[in-house]
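Internal QA ticket QA-208
Title: Verify multi-chain structure generation after dependency bump
Assignee: T.L.

Test input:
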Amino acid sequence: MKKSRKNNDKTSFLKEGFIDTISKNHTDYLGTIVPEGYFKKSKTAILDKIKSEVKENPVKEKQQLVFWMKPNIKYMVAASLVFIFGLTFWLQNANKKDDFSTTNFEILSFNEDYLMNSLLVDDAEFEALVDATLMNEIVIKAEVYERKMDALFINSLLVEDSLIDTYTEYFFLETIIL
Amino acid sequence: MNKEAVLVKKLKNATLKEVAFSELLDVYQERLYWHIRKIVITHENADDVLQNTFIRVYKSIANFQEKSSLHTWMYRIAYNESLRFLEKSNKKSYVHIDEVSSTHLEVLFEDVYFNGDEIQIKLNTIIASFTEKQKRVFQMKYFDDLSFRKISEILKISESTLKSIYYTTVKIIEEKILL
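Actual output:
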């Protein structure tokens, strides 16, 4: 191909700016050319290649998801449900722990080895043990003895017992000391 | 609705896709070819990359989210495909990064589809001496006639930086071309 002498004037080269079409622009400034009829042939080649590619690997059209089925929304909903269940489970466990520790103290308070009991509980829970122990010793035991006294008197009314005086004295003493 | 939006809508429609794609080729084929050619140098390489670009566009158009214009999106695909091609060919020929520019010049001048005179050879030599960024900015602005805003979207560089790069390269060319 004959070389153009159009650009021999260095001072005016590039001054024109964008020339006509993009192909002419490239040819005139960069000297790069394309074969005759290239773009028409290229278009056909591209369309044919796409047809054969699509036949081999059909394009799976991405279905438009409904808003609440979008992955982001699903993840948020799942995370919220996990959080709610986790919170519910944790709260239930937190309550159970209190019940358990209360029951634990009640059981321990019936054991009269107070020194051993004090070793079995944490310092933070010691006060609760003391309260439970006092409750057991003063209130519960007193209630039990009072009921025994009542039972004794009722029995004595119904059945004559030669040892009634002895029992009465013993229980009277205990009740007074308590 | 502008022309581009209408075209995108047709491309996403399964029944109209084939016709719309042919229309797309008519509008963008030449522009994308030259954009690619300046990066991959030879006509043969540009032809390969252009085909790959349009195949990728065809397969991905359904997922095009229209956050940028169709034009910008396609330019970016073409740009990435060109870089991918260069990476592959540089790996094959074990060319050191410093030697890439001179190798590209050799390849350009030996290409059957290069018909440059003295001043065009000089211009190509000056452009080859630029950094990659300078090259792309100058070529997209001057030869592809893209606005700074479009170039910014394609190359992910701020407009102010682009302008600075562009005017620097223009100055260098003006000085060196007269030597």
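Spot checks passed. Chain B has two domains: 1-96, 116-179.
Status: verified.
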